[in-house]
Write a structure and sequence with these properties.
CATH superfamily of the largest domain: Glutamine synthetase/guanido kinase, catalytic domain
Bound molecules: adenosine-5'-diphosphate, magnesium ion
EC number: 6.3.1.2
Helix content: 40-55%
Number of helices: 23
Radius of gyration: 28 Å
InterPro entries: Gln-synt_C (IPR040577), Gln_synt_N (IPR008147), Gln_synth/guanido_kin_cat_dom (IPR014746), Gln_synth_cat_dom (IPR008146), Gln_synth_gly_rich_site (IPR027303), GS_Type-3 (IPR052725), GSIII_N (IPR022147)
Distance between the termini: 28 Å
Domain GS catalytic: 164-595
Number of domains: 3
Number of strands: 17
CATH topology of the largest domain: Creatine Kinase, Chain A, domain 2
Keywords: Ligase
Largest sheet: 9 strands, mixed
GO molecular function: glutamine synthetase activity
Strand content: 5-15%
CATH architecture of the largest domain: 2-Layer Sandwich
Shape: globular
CATH class of the largest domain: Alpha Beta
């Protein structure tokens, strides 16, 4: 069979992973490198030289001609600069292939064109990339040939983080230190390291490339800016987990194979709720690797789509009125010897360590709900949060029946004495086995849901990096653990002290727990009564980065300096304003060059037909006239909305950059965009389809 795939052979075949290193590196060098990877020991240049040489030899065998420091600047996408392995020609005119330890561990990159939020003036262009040896290098094959990609962090000349990875690695150190302290208090002397584990479920849309090419809005902005709902949306729920069509299956097969080659554990795939929407989830991994793998996965999803004559849309809300796409971030804390700190066991009420961890997390999320919300802020997510199937913009925690009940016992009596058990689910069919239900059902409306032995943060946008939310999760948990340990380490009677602390946290932070329907409008009201922040827009969320509380938190754990936080806030405002500006200009472009001319053509046809029919004699032309009137009226509304939008957009550059400009874009530009969309979508429902200048929603999502 030609398309037989031996997955075990394929998996990781293009990765310089542990097995390859053990096989190819001299024993001593391998051991030294492992120490760096596992214990964070500094890597000497001699060791790096040997590793680099072997890595290069291996990469060349895999067909690589170039190497690249692969990094994640704050643009939202990955960046890379390619260098061939060749050295200057020898006297005989030949070149050698070389790659030194220095080239492996440090790269210099002209950083002036990356967002820095004022951290660097453009003339101070130096930026450095540094090898993150905890995330393996890999050889990527594409039209450029083979490229050895080295995952790196990206910092400025003065050491400030200019990327997503650096703070993530810093936050991993913070949570490791504080988790170990907590474990030691409970008598654990064996675990050496605690790592946040993350599995990021990736949602995406697939549409036909030919149709994509006819939609300027998709090309320039990643989402549709106009589009009337087709007669059918997702109301029948017939796409979710439906049979996957052959074209899509062939695509998924290739995506999986490409992922596997690069060591990405693509595991679960299915159709999602909206037509043309799908999901791919890997097996969870240490968070820095999960973050790198998610970037690789997004790239593969896009690349393979073009090979199949399709386009993969990663935007959070490509189509209004149907589900948006997210990236559910499943997060837990795991020790090197396999203990999951978030595993409640069968009887959570007796698991004091778990209850402490849990109540600390409640405290962390309650205290820093604004930061967690901010971590999912992304221009596209503004369209999604609170929309179909997306969690609302209010942060709350879903615990479920079992843990909710344990928490209630703690709050009311101070002690939890029992845990609700899962009951038997009777199928009612003799030939089917009855089975045990989980003690807790799931809640898909909660932004932060406990799901058995992990938390699922469902707010992250499909296009966004998962780094930001995990930086926040790791750091706020580290802070809560630290504050608990500070008190418990001083306690004379540990048992009493921990009991009191759990109760105190449970009572103080119970307002963050919400097990009901997060989509219900009543919840927004209830959340307000509870004093929980509701930050519907990215622009509302950004200030959370620079509050006194946030600065204290991130500085204490050396995750961000105040300057870095301020620069990040600046970058966010800048990105927001630029993105809205591009969307507005795209709307103007489409309205002027495509929609208005099309409607004029159609109304001309109608008018001609009125005259022609009238000439024939006494025939009823009321329908033509009615349509003509309606379309002409809407055309007028469209034209003035378009003029208003142009006017509003032309003023953007006059507004001072930063927060002020972002607020203007949100309040004024976005509103003007909506006012233009409404009449155009109405026109789409009236105008002859053959004259409408672009594929409809129906064409895009039902005919892939
Ligand atoms: P669902 O869509 O039902 O939530 P999926 O199987 O699509 O579930 O995704 C669940 C994700 O959670 C997977 O990436 C999985 O590897 C990950 N996961 C499972 N257990 C853990 C854990 N202990 N810590 C972190 N992630 C986990
Ligand atoms: Mg899933």
């Amino acid at each position: 069979m030609s398309d037989y795939v031996n997955v075990t052979e394929l998996f990781g075949c293009d990765v310089f992973n542990d097995a390859v290193m053990e096989e190819r590196l001299p024993k001593k060098v391998y051991k030294e490198l492992k120490k760096t990877i596992e214990e964070g020991k500094e890597l000497s240049l001699e060791v790096a030289d040997v590793v680099a040489h072997e890595m290069k030899e291996w990469a060349i065998e895999k067909g690589a001609t170039h190497y690249s420091h692969w990094f994640q600047p704050l643009t939202g996408v990955t960046a890379e600069k390619h260098d061939a392995f060749i050295t200057a020609p020898k006297e005989n005119g030949k070149v050698l292939m070389s790659f030194s330890g220095k080239e492996l561990i440090k790269g210099e990159s002209d950083a002036s064109s990356f967002p820095s939020g004022g951290l660097r003036a453009t003339f101070e262009a130096r930026g450095y990339t540094a090898w993150d040896c905890t995330s393996p290098a890999f050889v990527r094959h594409d039209a450029a040939g083979g490229t050895l990609c080295i995952p790196t962090a990206f910092c400025s000349y003065t050491g400030e983080a200019l990327d997503q990875k650096t703070p993530l690695l810093r936050s991993m150190e913070a949570i490791n230190t504080q988790s170990l302290r907590l474990l030691r208090l409970f008598g654990n002397t064996t675990s050496k390291k605690v790592t946040p584990s993350v599995g990021a479920e990736q949602e995406y849309f697939l549409i036909d490339k030919e149709k994509w090419l006819q939609r300027k809005d998709l090309i320039y902005t990643g989402r549709t800016l106009f589009g009337a709902m087709p007669p059918k949306g997702q109301e029948m729920d017939d796409h979710y987990l439906g049979t996957i069509r052959q074209r899509i299956s062939a695509y998924m097969k290739e995506v999986n194979e490409e992922c596997w080659k690069l060591g990405v554990t693509a595991k679960t795939q299915h159709n999602e709720v909206a037509p043309a929407q799908h999901e791919l989830a890997p097996i969870y991994a240490p968070v820095n690797i999960a973050a790198d793998h998610n970037q690789i996965m997004m790239r593969i999803l896009k690349k393979v789509a073009s090979r199949h004559g399709m386009r993969c849309l990663l935007h959070e809300k490509p189509f209004a009125g149907v589900n948006g796409s997210g990236k559910h971030n499943n997060w837990s804390l795991t020790t090197d010897d396999g203990i999951n700190l978030l595993d409640p066991g069968k009887t959570p009420h007796e698991n004091i360590q778990f209850l402490l961890v849990l109540t600390c997390i409640l405290k962390a999320v309650d205290t820093h709900a604004d930061l967690l919300r901010e971590s999912a802020a992304d221009v596209g997510n503004d369209q999604r949060l609170g929309g179909n199937e997306a969690p609302p913009a209010v942060i709350s925690v879903f615990l479920g029946e079992q843990l909710g009940d344990v928490l209630d016992q703690l709050i009311s009596t101070g002690t939890a004495t029992h845990s609700k058990k899962g009951t038997i689910l009777e199928t009612g069919v003799k030939t089917l086995p009855d089975f045990m239900k989980d003690a807790t059902d799931r809640n898909r409306t909660s932004p932060f849901a406990f799901t058995g032995n992990k938390f699922e943060f469902r707010m992250v946008g499909s296009r966004d990096s998962i780094s930001e939310c995990n930086v926040v999760l790791n750091t706020i948990a580290a802070e809560a653990f630290k504050e608990a340990c500070d008190r418990l380490e001083q306690a004379d009677d540990f048992e009493m002290a921990v009991h009191d602390l759990i109760k105190e946290y449970a009572i103080e932070h119970q307002r963050i727990v919400f097990n009901g329907n997060g989509y219900a409008p009543e919840w927004a009201e209830e959340a307000k009564r509870r004093g929980l922040p509701n930050l519907p827009s990215m622009v509302d969320a950004i200030p959370a980065l620079t509050t006194e509380k946030a600065v204290k938190l991130f500085e204490e754990f050396h995750v961000f300096t105040q300057t870095e936080l301020e620069s990040r806030a600046e970058i966010q405002y800048e990105i927001y304003a630029k993105a809205v500006n591009i969307e507005a200009k795209t709307m103007i472009d489409i309205a002027t060059k495509q929609i208005i001319p099309a409607v004029i053509r159609y109304t001309t046809v109608l008018a001609d037909s009125v005259n022609t029919v009238r000439a024939v004699g006494d025939i009823d032309i009321s329908v033509q006239l009615e349509l003509l009137k309606k379309c002409s009226a809407l055309l007028k509304v469209t034209n003035s909305a378009m003029k208003n939008l142009s006017d509003v957009v032309s003023k953007v550059s006059e507004i001072p950059e930063g927060r002020e400009r972002a607020v203007y874009c949100k309040d004024v530009v976005c509103k003007a965009m909506e006012e233009l969309r409404t009449p155009v979508d109405e026109l789409e429902m009236l105008v002859d389809k053959s004259m409408w200048p672009m594929p409809s929603y129906g064409d895009l999502i039902f005919e892939v």
